[in-house]
Design a protein that fits this description.
- The protein is α/β, with parallel strands linked by helices.
- The chain has a single domain, classed as P-loop containing nucleotide triphosphate hydrolases (Rossmann fold, 3-Layer(aba) Sandwich), CATH 3.40.50.
- Helices cover 43% and strands 19% of the residues.
- The protein contains 7 helices and 7 strands; from the N terminus they run βαβααβββαβααβα.
- Strands 2-5-1-6-7 form a 5-stranded parallel sheet, covered by helices on one side.
- Strand 3 and strand 4 form a beta hairpin.
- It is globular.
Amino acid sequence: MLIIGIAGGSGSGKTTVVKAITEQLKENVVVIPQDSYYKDLGHLSEEEKRVHNFDHPESIDFDLLRAQLKELREGRIVEQPIYSYITCGRSTETVTVKPADVIIVEGILIFSDPKLRKLMDIKIFVDADDDDRLMRVMARDIVERGKTVEWVIERYSKTVKPMYLQFIEPSKRYADIIIPQGGHNKVAIDVISATIEKSLANSKKSR
């Protein structure tokens, strides 16, 4: 099993990269989104939810994420949380995740946790222009998460951009591979897919 971390700022194209790599690999792939592990804020008031900083490492339940990754690596099934951006809380339901040849952990803050980084065999950072990221964040939050333009702009200026500069951009130094141009860099995606295939083949030979 290979555990691959794919990080980058909000709207950098991480999801596009994950999808492209998954489609190219012949092996069984499971994607673990960091967003599923946001801490439950369902008990907070609407005003408290509005001002909560979702781009700070403390907003993520890294203990549970690491524990479930270890379980998968040991061949055990886990129940992944389901997080709602509408209620800012966890659902009573879960997603059953089975072990696979490749586990991809994807999220903006996954390289900020040293213990989580140690579990990763390959670390990839998806880089993109700030303006491009802002446009994607606005489109996603308005269409998929029911937010207003004003809410998105306020959140971007108060938390998304400052947290990117404080936590996410500096974590780029931990990456083994940096993909410029976000998810549109087909050459980089092809190289990464080939590297993963080679690593898997070497791993199987050494068994």
